[in-house]
Amino acid sequence: MSHQWGPQGPAFEVQGVYRSENRALFARAALLGVPALLLLVLALADPSLPRWLPTKLLRLPQDGRMLHVMLGLLLLALAGVDVLRATRQRALRLLPGQPGSLVTPQRSARAPNPDAAGLVALLDGGTAPRAPMATGWPLLARLSPGLVEAPLGLQSWMAQRLAHLAWIGGLTLGLLIAWLLLRPSGVAMMGALCVAVAAFVLLRSRQPGRVTPGPRTVALQLALTLATGLAGGLLVPEALSAPLSALGLAQGAAVMLVALLLAELVALAAGRVAVDQPLARGPAPAACSVEIDADAESVQQEVERELHRYWSEGVPNRRYLWQGPPDGDRGSAAGFETSSLEESQPLLLATGEPNRSGGVRRPWLLALLALGLLFTLGGGLLWGVVVWQQLQRAARPWQMGSAAVLLFFAGGYAIRVAHLLWSRVEAQSLLFSLNCSTGEAAGAPVQLRWAVTRARSAFYAAAEHGVGSRVLLELTSDEAAAQRSAQQVKRYAQKINVAEAQDSRPPPAPAPRPPRAPMPMPAQSAAAEQRFCVDCGASVPVAARYCPGCGERQRGG
User: Which helix (H) or strand (E) holds 202?
Assistant: First the structure.
């Protein structure tokens, strides 16, 4: 992990999160690019050029080459998209505010934060209350009971899998009914409708922030779609559905629906085992309590400085709870009490550290990548069958064309459907819980209780970052860090209190000068022989060079 500063503030980058997915994308780009180039060479080759082509391949009908050119360009575009996507996600970048906070941060010191009550109870060794399931699919709680404690992004993703399974299963059932009851023209029309609806449902689910509809809504929409498709299949004229029948759209729709159904089932199994074991109970409290002979304001200042020392990479801590006296009573020492709960910026684990919860879900994710590559390879083989039938001058050579094209898209979907599960990242942070209070008596010492807890959490970088997007996996009390911080606050607060007490005392008055003994005045014979010191005013002899009283040098002496 590297720390960088960008236009929006400090950001963190970590390499290798999507390494396996990127390899699958590059492999799929190769599987798409090679047949695309072959198709373009085959379709655009002149009958006399190039000479290295077999003569049998040059017998491709001229009227059917345009579709090969269009498919070759489409495959090249899909390969380019895969390469671009894999290149852009080589490094995972977390912007300021990411990952999301455990609870809603407190905005005002006077307003309480009820969302932090569960976290406070967990840090005190209790159990946090369970939140209800955020999705409207009750079947998810039966498939995976621990999903209630999972991040909201994973819950939404699992609900999306069930909704897609319902759609794909319903469309498959409708296509089967049309195959049994309708004419070939009606079956082709129903196949076209299934392809269009499936593409719309899959593309709509990629919109960020979209809420997955509930089972009743999906059932109602599916019933209306099937009723419309079956009615249209009964009433459609034969002439309108003839091109669809020639392209084998019904067979292609069946192949696509089976492929999507298989991909969704494997993705649901991968998501089911990806749910982490919820944290049942917090650690045993290991707080450090000290008495500080200082005023409350000095202790508060040192507490703020000590919390500032725990900033990670210059990113401020996240304050979940702060309960203190009003601003005007901050310095009062009688009945003073302050409580605080903060978390340092979560830092991602090093690349070499093992992911303790990712080994179970990895086989399912690799199976999804293998399915995507197999679907892509199957699409290329089916299009090769189309080319072979054209060379053999078959009556209906395009029967496998729709299945081949739809398999290409199903392969890309199978690779990308578990992108959220690949983005699971673990982070480490520190939780600081402290309480500072004084007695009612004036001059009572300040009681400081400081606790430090090391937290290991997990989140999904591809999901939205907000409250509930990160889940706690492990909490460990750090008594040594709590002892060190409490003693440091005590030492500096008392030092500041002593220094302020010394500065507040008035400076000592200077010692009075002892009175000077009067100097005996020598008798002078004449007034001209007497003069006085220019400094102290005492009389000095005329010939004296220094004053006998103060020692000042005399002029003319």
Answer: helix 184-204
Instruction: Verify cis geometry, omega within 30 degrees of 0, for the bond prior to 96.
Output: no
Show the CA angle centred on residue 175, arms to residues 171 and 181, nearest 5°: 140
Rounded Cα gap, residues 469 and 209, in angstroms: 13
Nearest one of 73, 75, 97, 77 to 85, comparing CA atoms:
77
The verdict on 313 and 341 lying in the same domain is: yes
Strand partners, 531: 540
Structural domain contains residue 60: yes
Task: Tell me, yes or no, whether 553 and 429 share the same domain.
Answer: no
Where helices occur in 417-466 by DSSP H, the ranges are: 419-422
The verdict on 347 and 433 lying in the same domain is yes
How distant, in Å, are the alpha carbons of 4, 94, 96, 316 from that of 7? 10, 13, 10, 17
Q: Do 555 and 442 sit in the same domain of this protein?
A: no
Structurally, how many domains does the chain consist of? 3
- Residues 415/28, Cβ–Cβ less than 8 Å: yes
Tens-binned pLDDT, residue by residue, of the chain (557 aa): 555 555 555 567 778 889 999 999 999 999 999 989 888 877 776 555 456 655 555 566 666 677 888 888 999 999 999 999 999 998 888 887 888 888 888 776 666 777 788 888 888 887 776 666 667 788 888 888 888 888 888 989 999 999 999 999 999 999 999 999 888 888 888 998 999 999 999 998 887 777 888 889 999 999 999 999 888 888 877 766 667 777 788 899 999 999 999 999 999 999 998 888 878 788 887 888 888 888 888 888 888 898 899 888 778 888 888 877 655 455 455 567 888 899 998 988 754 444 544 556 789 999 999 999 999 999 999 988 888 787 776 667 777 888 999 999 999 999 999 999 999 989 999 999 998 888 766 667 888 899 999 999 999 988 888 888 898 988 999 999 999 999 998 888 888 777 766 665 566 666 676 776 666 655 544 455 567 777 777 777 777 777 877 777 777 65
Among 40, 65, 88, the domain boundary falls at 88
DSSP letter for each residue of 238-253: HHHHHHHHHTTHHHHH
- Residue 200 located in a structural domain: no
Please identify, among 72, 88, 104, the residue that sits at the C-terminal boundary of a domain.
88
Cβ count within 10 A of residue 525? 7
Question: b or e along 272-303 (b: 16 or more beta carbons within 10 Å of the residue's beta carbon)?
Answer: bbbbbebbeebbeebbbebebebbbbbbbbbb
Whether 462 and 532 map to the same domain: the answer is no
The structure's pTM equals: 0.79
109's CB contacts (< 8 A; 6+ apart) are 322, 323, 324
Domain span at 445: 288-352+425-504
The answer to whether residue 172 sits within a structural domain is: no
Inside any domain, residue 26 = yes
Q: Do 26 and 83 lie in a common domain?
A: yes
Fill in the amino acid letter for 213: P
Same domain, 329 and 453: yes
CB count within 10 Å of CB 49 equals 9
Say if residue 539 is in the same domain as residue 433. Answer: no
